Each structure stands twice: as structure tokens, then as C-alpha cells.
Amino acid sequence: MITPASPRPLDVDVLIVGAGFAGLRLLHETRKLGLSARILEMADGPGGTWYWNRYPGARCDVVSADYSYAFSPELDQEWRWSERYATQPEILRYVDHVVQRFDFARDISLNTTVTGAVYLDEDQRWAVTDHTGREWIATYFVMATGCLSVPKKPDFPGQDDFRGESYHTAYWPKEEVEFGGKRVAVIGTGSSGTQLIPIAAEQAAHLTVFQRTPNFSIPARNRPVTDEEDRAIKAEYPERRVRALNSPTGLGFEPTKVKALEAPEDERLKHYETQWNSAGFGFILSYPDLLLDQRANDTAADFIRAKIAATVKNPELAEKLSPTGYPFGAKRACVDSGYFETFNRDNVTLVDMRDTPIVEITETGIRTTEAEYDVDMIVYATGFDAMTGALLRFPIRGAGGLTLAERWADGPKTFLGIMTDGFPNFFFLTGPGSPSVLSNVLMSIEQHVDWLGRLLEHARERGAATTEVTRDAVERWVDHVNELAAGTLYPDARSYYMGDEIAGKPRVFMPYSGGLRGFRRRCEEVAANGYPELVFREHAVQPVG
Ligand code: NAP
Question: Does the beta carbon of 188 lie inside 6 Å of ligand 1?
Fold first, then answer.
């Protein structure tokens, strides 16, 4: 047990920002360690990104049996998922169940927005301020704020003048939004747009989809989980969890040993067909070289484009919906339920913004370089300030007053995606430099939290007041992450992996592309070697070099 040090009422050992999957999991870990902890959460309920993204059609695109906590075998046995890919309301019910089951609520402050955090050099503690001006003092400060949690605010000229209804998928209201009988516009065709569009099309009088970049999308093949399947999942849950953790991306899939270009064409097509009908997001793992070799990638991309051409009846429309010019998977692929089929409907129009970009939003609709579209509702499915957005949302000042934004001016600099130099006792979960968005993020969260828990124990055993990574270790890790990415096709697409979604964001590949399995091994090595990359201090002194 770590000795709790909480002399003042608002003092805690560990202050956590965010009551999403990561924050709750960390709260569980801190309790195991005997540390006092508090989560500050801006929303009025837990769930993180699943709290906010309430748009119709929102569901996870990793199979729910795997997109769920692995830390409690009892929880595995008592929770029953109703569908292969749970909807957002069901995921939120799961989160609420977890909160109640583990009595988390007593350590969560809801409706509490953090506005700043400062490391107090002399005290070796963090002072964290919330929107009411209240100050929280903590030994450890952890951002569990997610990779995709700060919505990208659309900035189309004139958008505030629009007199109809406007929504962002990531700020969807709790009240039901009626599409029925309305002319609806959706801007954006990423995962959120792709999930919403088929549902909006079924209800709206007319749906106009504004697409800038066509996306690769794989059918989800969602279906109810039968009682028999549920029993089978539960019977083998312990092995399933181990298999997922040891798989390259936490999804439980192993790519074939044979490479795409080594397989005879007829066999390859057969394999793609099987994958298309069953693998969902795992389609990208059909062959081990799909993200390493452009020619291999072309075989998968061609297969998907042929599927789009076979699904969308109007060939011109099919062409516009077909992704070209970037490798399949280098930009996050979508997993859909009837997305391409939607464009066969009479009440759906596609506007290709590559030919006719949006000029402005008017009082009555959207004007492109070619036409004016009068609508009753505009849905912005324009995504997030990914990976660094939440970490840089409010000023975080480390040792000597340097802010995280200053330290990361040229792009995020981390060690293992969990810490950065100059910020003692400061951690973030599934941050840039970790597999995060390239993995089953639930597995990544648990891996990071387990590792952090052991690090905190180690620090206690050494009697360390502060734990910090050296700049050298950070630089080496950033180089390693870049080297790995350079050997892949990821940099060949414009994507949020590269910071392309926000104008002016440094263009660097942010996630760790070596897979969760390889990453976990590296993390284990660091721990087994006694954390040589870290400096443990009894008293804060000069900066680490
Ligand atoms: P996204 O993938 O970043 O897609 C945003 C869309 O908006 C893109 O089509 C983008 O076009 C378009 N866009 C953005 N700004 C624009 C502008 N100024 N003008 C025109 N078009 C613009 O965001 P998302 O769909 O919200 O998904 C983000 C991520 O969240 C996903 O990749 C996934 O990781 C996660 N997610 C997961 C699920 C799930 O588990 N099922 C569901 C939803 C989201 P460009 O492509 O040209 O930039």
C-alpha cells in the first residue's frame, strides 16, 4: 500500500481528468494501490466520448465483447451485450453499471471543468484549477481525456446566420432530434457521418451529403448476440482477453503468415471476400503487408472499390464515393451498416466538395461554388482535434513554468505515450506515441493503466517524491515512433493521425504504429530494467537533462 498523503481537504494523491473508460479504469487501479484519487469530469455523467457522441447510429466498431473492460472476470460474466457492436446508449449503460458496481461515483466530481494545472516546484505537487476557481492539490496529475474528445468546431463562413437546426455529432443533444419530413444536410463522411447517414436518410424528406474525401468503409455485419453466442463468449472469456492482449492491435486477430502479394490472386480474392463478410475493422489485418507495401495495399483497395461499384447503382456516383489517391487504412477506415446502399435512395444527394466546395452557410442552407442547397437542418460530422486536442485544451505548466503547448510546439513529444520530460508526476493515458487510435483502445487503456500502476508502486518503494522521464529518452522514443511510421504507408494520406485535420497543426505521425503487442513488450522491458529512462527524486532540484 502506498501511504496516502492528504492533509488538506482538496488534496488527493492522484487527480484524474475525465470519467471516460480511461479515467474510471485508473480510479480502480489507484484504489488497488491504496491511493486517494478524484476524477474531475466536465459532463454531468460518466462515459467520456460515449457520453457526448449520442448521434443516431453511434456504435462502436470493435466487437463489444472485446471493446469492454478486461480487468474484472466477474464483470465479464455478468454483463450481456445485446449486439455484436453495441450502440452508444448500450455502451453508456455499461459504463453506468461499472460505475455502480465498483462504487466509483463517490470519487467523481461531475460538472467540473478543469481550466489549468501548474506544477509547484517547491511543493513537488500539482495545483489544478476548475471552472469555479476551486483549487485541487495532488501528488500525481493524470489526463485521461481520450484521443478523440475535443470536437473540431466547423468554421464555415456564415454558419452562425443559419436559421435552421445545427448539430455536431460529438455534441449531440440528449433530446431526440427529429429528421422526419425535414431537408437535412450532413457535412463530413468519416466514421461518425458514415454511421449517421443511413439512419438520417431513412427518416428525412431529403438528405444531402457533403463529402470532401471519400472513405474506405467495411460492412460491420452487425447482428444480435444470441444466448448461445453469449454463453460461448463467457465460457472462453479469460482466453479471449489474453488472446486480444497478445494480438498485434488488441482486436484478437492475427494476420495471415502469407503476404498479400505472395498469395495467388484467386486465393487472395477469396480471403478478402471472407474478411469482407466477417472481419469488420479487422479487414485491414487481412494480410501483414497491407500498410507496408503500396502494391499489396492496392489489392485490398481495388477489392473495396469493386464492392462500392457493385453496390452503388449509378456509376458516376459510385466513382465519386470511391476512395482514390491514398492507401487503404492510412486514413482511418470506417465500419458501416448500409452506407453505400444509402446512395441508391431517391431522397439522397451527394455533393462532392472536391469539385464544388462549400463557399458559405447562408440563412437558409449551404452554398457551394455551383449551387445553393436549402435545408432545415445541418449536421456537422466534421470530427475532432485528435490526439493532442484534449491535452492542450487548457494550460498545463510543468517544472519551471514551461507549458505543455510550448514543449510540444513542433508536435507531441512523449515517452511511451504516457509522459513527457519537464513535467514531473504528470501522466496521460493512450497519448501520442502509443498505439491508441490504431488499436482496440480499451486494451490500450488497460495496458497503460497497469503499467502506470506498477510505476507508482515502484516510485513508492524507492521513496521517490517525483518521477520524471529524461529528455533524452523522450527524444529517442519520438525518433523511434517516427522511424516506425516512415516504414509504413500511413504518412501517404492526409489524416488526423498526421495532424492534418486542423490547419496549422504540426504534421507528424502521432500514434505508435508497431502494434499493441510490440508496444507492450517495450513497456515491459522498461519496467523489468528498473525504468532506466526515468529519474526518481526525493526532492525537486535542477531539471533533468
Ligand atoms: P473524421 O473521421 O475526422 O471525419 C471528419 C469528416 O469531416 C471527414 O469526412 C472530413 O473530410 C470532413 N471535414 C472536416 N472538416 C471539414 C471541412 N472544413 N470541410 C469539409 N469537410 C470537412 O471524424 P469522425 O467521423 O467524427 O470520426 C473520428 C474518429 O472517431 C474515427 O476515425 C474513429 O476513430 C472514431 N469514431 C469511432 C466510431 C466507432 O467506434 N464506431 C464512431 C465514430 C467515430 P476530410 O476527410 O477531407 O478531412
Answer: yes
Going from the C-alpha of 113 to that of each of 39, 109, 117, 396, 405, the distances in angstroms are 11, 9, 12, 14, 19
Q: Which residues contact 69 (CB under 8 A, 6 or more apart)?
A: 21, 25, 75, 98, 442, 446
Cα-flanking dihedrals φ and ψ of residue 128, to 5°?
A: -120, 130
Best mutation site among 51, 187, 197, 212 for ligand 1 pocket (most ligand atoms within 8 Å of CB): 212
- 185 neighbors 379 (Cβ within 8 angstroms): yes
Task: Reduce the DSSP state of residue 340 to 3 states and report it.
Answer: helix
Q: Quickly list H helices, 236-336.
A: 237-246, 265-276, 294-311, 315-321
Contact predicate 45/51, CB 8 Å: yes
Q: Which atom of ligand 1 is nearest to the CA of 496?
A: 3
The pLDDT of 375-397, averaged and rounded, is 98
Question: Position 443: which residue type?
Answer: M
This prediction has a pTM of 0.96
Give pLDDT tens digits for 448-499: 999 999 999 999 999 999 999 999 999 999 999 999 999 999 999 999 999 9
CA distances from 91 to 65, 169, 195, 398 (A): 11, 17, 16, 35
Question: Cβ(191) to ligand 1 under 6 A?
Answer: yes
Q: What is the pLDDT of residues 64-98, one digit of tens each?
A: 999 999 999 999 999 999 999 999 999 999 999 99
Instruction: Please answer whether residues 422 and 471 qualify as being in contact, where contact means their C-beta atoms are separated by less than 8 angstroms.
Output: yes
Question: Average pLDDT, stretch 226-235?
Answer: 98
Helix then strand count (H, E) for the chain reads: 15, 20
What's the confidence (pLDDT) of residue 543? Answer: 41
pLDDT tens digits for 341-380?
Answer: 999 999 999 999 999 999 999 999 999 999 999 999 999 9
Q: What is the pLDDT of residue 292?
A: 97
Nearest-CA residue for atom 28 of ligand 1:
383
Ligand 1 center to 119 CA (angstroms): 35
Tens digit of each residue's pLDDT (9 = 90 or more) over 150-189: 999 889 999 999 999 999 999 999 999 999 999 999 999 9
For residue 213 and ligand 1, the question of a CB distance below 6 A is answered with: yes
Q: What's the CA-to-centroid distance between 495 and ligand 1, angstroms?
A: 9
Pairing label, strands 372-374, 108-109: unpaired
Task: Provide the 3-class DSSP secondary structure of residue 312.
Answer: coil
DSSP 8-state assignment for residue 459: H
Q: Is the CB of 384 under 6 A from ligand 1?
A: yes
Q: How far is CA 468 from the centre of its chain?
A: 26
User: DSSP assignment of 367-408, as one string?
Assistant: EESS-EEE-SEEEE---B-TTTTTTTSS-EE-GGG-BHHHHT
